[in-house]
Design a protein that fits this description.
Blueprint: E1 29-34, H1 45-52, E2 56-60, H2 67-71, E3 77-81, E4 88-89, E5 100-106, H3 109-118, H4 120-123, E6 127-129, H5 151-162, H6 172-186, H7 188-195
Parallel strand pairs: 1-2, 1-5, 3-5, 3-6, 4-6
């Protein structure tokens, strides 16, 4: 028998995060392309980001047939937030700059690369990247390297660079609560054994 689930944040009703999800405006439009394997993941941070940003859209799939339409949003220039040797570092908007449609693949690194492989139009987008000095708050997963962030963390960091001095930190409140809840559920001994400092 499954537990009742919140229809908005998809968390069990007893652990609903909706009260912590902000309602933020951004000049940047965020398009999240989520691999289907992430939809029912307990730590679905892309959904939290999409719910907390008014100018965001979450689309689930592997092959996005409507990608040309999704990427062609009048008034925005599409950029893929994904590492590459030729990725441009994000920088603050000048007043005359056209805002970005920031396309963010969501999944494990392997699944995100698969999304790019299956959607050549996506892979062909000019890429932008974050500084790789960021440290993730995702205490339940070992990051594959410096700058490896959860989806919501990457979006917050990107928006805070582009739209400085605006703060998008409220997007991290439900994320932090989610992590704290997972740690509490496993208990301090199990957490320390599996995720403690090595």
């Amino acid at each position: 028998m499954s537990r009742p689930q919140c229809s908005r944040c998809l968390r069990p009703v007893a652990h609903c995060l909706c009260a912590l999800i902000p309602n933020l405006d951004s000049r940047t439009r965020v398009l999240l392309l989520q691999h289907p394997s992430e939809v029912n993941h307990a730590l679905n941070t892309a959904r939290l980001a999409a719910l907390g940003l008014n100018n965001a859209q979450l689309v689930v799939g592997e092959v996005f047939e409507d990608l040309p339409t999704l990427l062609n949003v009048p008034g925005y220039q599409a950029r893929l937030l994904f590492p590459a040797d030729d990725a441009q570092p994000l920088k603050v908007y000048a007043p005359e700059d056209q805002p970005l449609l920031l396309v963010v693949p969501d999944g494990t690194w392997r699944k995100a690369r698969k999304l790019l492989h299956l959607n050549p139009l996506l892979a062909a987008l000019p890429r932008v990247a974050l500084a790789d000095s960021a440290v993730s708050r995702y205490r339940l997963r070992k990051a594959p390297g410096p700058g490896a962030l959860s989806t919501v963390e990457a979006i917050v960091q990107a928006l805070e660079v582009l739209e400085s001095p605006a703060s998008f930190a409220p997007l991290l409140k439900p994320f932090d609560a989610l992590i704290d809840g997972q740690i509490a559920a496993m208990g301090p001994d199990v957490f320390q054994r599996n995720h403690g400092q090595r």
